[in-house]
Specification:
CATH topology of the largest domain: Rossmann fold
Structural class: alpha/beta
Radius of gyration: 20 Å
Number of strands: 14
Number of domains: 2
CATH superfamily of the largest domain: Response regulator
Order of helices and strands: HEHEEHEHHEEHEHEHEHEHEHHHEEE
CATH class of the largest domain: Alpha Beta
Shape: globular
Distance between the termini: 19 Å
Largest sheet: 8 strands, mixed
CATH architecture of the largest domain: 3-Layer(aba) Sandwich
């Protein structure tokens, strides 16, 4: 798959409005995003619920999810499946309990047809019983925990927390130049299972881990000790699993520790994606990350998405915004394709019949575990003109 030069992508931004993978997993039927709202007669309005952080440390990420879903609605006259949408937004907050409370409010009080959003993997786990008991589909648009199994009404358009490490492992094993130190965050968020998955796949690919994987406290901002340990070891590279404010601090302190010139830092995309990269600045230069999306991808759906997103928000879209945009596309297609009077049960069944989604990341479709089968990409933080960007450098594995 070819990809865009960053400057070409930026030129596309000014032209707002300008004009993969295919494996039969849940259904043989397939259609693109465009076969949604505008091709069917309108029906009664529908109420959907969105759970995103509106306060607290995840607010910036919540804004990205809100932007992606809102953009899709704007481009489709605020309709999904030909029906006017009343989108009720509830604050996910910072904890699993506050996320569960948000889901209960939308299910029990607002009586929504379906849910979307959810930033925290732990919140998604906490609300599982609420969703499954109510039989109301959740099309989640951020990373979900690998431990979420057996759900019939929870779908995810982003990725499983273990997949970034799996995607990076083989490339890291072949390009580290020696042993790899592994560090990550303890506690909520899925970081520990992500680290374990990377170690397992790295060893399977012939890579060598330096000592034991090291963890730092959840919410901690002092990484001096763990960085000193890695620097004093024989490691030639490091894999670091952090996101949000922890990612900003880790990257700045990593750069301040002055590792040798040939030392490489590998990570899941969350380490340098979106708003955290803007805060990290030059400290993030040369970091390699694995993610399921890059604005550099050269396909028609991505070119339209970049142009429309830039016009609406004046910013480059992230994987978080893209996954939420795709969540809206999934609901659009499923509402259109529901085969009887629309309710939550028939909508969930229609999601299960969907084939390939024509996405900015490239074509993908749901697996039996209700997560995407999709291509992963290697990016490197580089200065491109006046911008510091996650520049697409190679394709990695297909995961799902």
């Amino acid at each position: 798959m070819s990809h865009l030069n960053r400057r070409q992508a930026l030129r596309l931004f000014a032209a707002a409005g300008a004009a993969g993978l295919t494996a039969p997993i849940l259904s043989a039927c397939s259609s693109g995003n465009g076969a949604g709202s505008n091709s069917v007669p309108s029906g009664p309005p529908i109420k959907l619920g969105m759970i995103v952080p509106q306060t607290g440390m995840y607010k910036d990420l919540g804004n990205e999810l809100d932007n992606g879903f809102s953009l899709y609605l704007q481009l489709h006259d605020n309709k999904l499946g030909g029906r006017q949408v009343n989108l009720v937004k509830v604050d996910e907050g910072e904890s699993a309990d506050s996320g569960k409370a948000a889901a209960e409010k939308l299910v029990k009080e607002e009586k929504v047809l379906a849910l979307t959003g959810v930033v925290s993997p732990q919140a998604m786990l906490a609300m599982k019983d609420t969703i499954e008991t109510a039989q109301i589909p959740l099309v989640g648009s951020n990373a979900s925990p690998a431990s979420l199994q057996g759900a019939k009404y929870i779908w995810r358009t982003s990725f499983v927390t273990t997949e970034p490490g799996q995607a990076m492992a083989r490339w890291a094993a072949e390009n580290a130049g020696g042993t790899i130190a592994v560090v990550g965050q303890a506690g909520p968020g899925g970081d520990e299972e992500e680290v374990r998955s990377f170690v397992e796949f790295l060893k399977g690919a012939g890579g060598d881990v330096e000592g034991q994987a090291k963890t730092t406290p959840f919410g901690g901002k002092d990484f001096g000790t763990v960085l000193a340990q890695v620097k004093q070891s024989r490691a030639a590279a490091m894999y670091a699993s952090y996101g949000g404010a922890a990612a900003v601090e880790f990257v700045k302190q990593f750069r301040g520790a002055r590792f040798p010139g040939g030392f490489k830092l590998f990570a899941p995309g969350s380490l340098t994606e979106g708003y955290v990269l803007r805060q990290q600045g030059d400290a993030a230069k040369d970091i390699y990350t694995a993610l399921n999306y890059s604005p550099d991808l050269d396909n028609a759906a991505n070119r339209r998405f970049i142009a429309d997103y830039q016009k609406a928000f004046g910013a480059i879209p992230t994987t978080y915004a893209m996954a939420s945009y795709d969540a809206a596309a999934v609901l659009d297609k499923a509402i259109t394709d529901a085969t009887r009077s629309l309710d939550s049960f028939s909508l969930n069944a229609a999601i299960g019949r969907l084939g390939q989604i024509d996405s900015p990341r490239g074509g993908w479709q749901f697996t039996q575990n209700r997560t995407p089968l999709q291509r992963w990409y290697l990016r490197q933080v580089r200065a491109d003109g006046a911008l510091l960007s996650n520049v697409l450098t190679a394709e990695l594995a297909t995961q799902g």
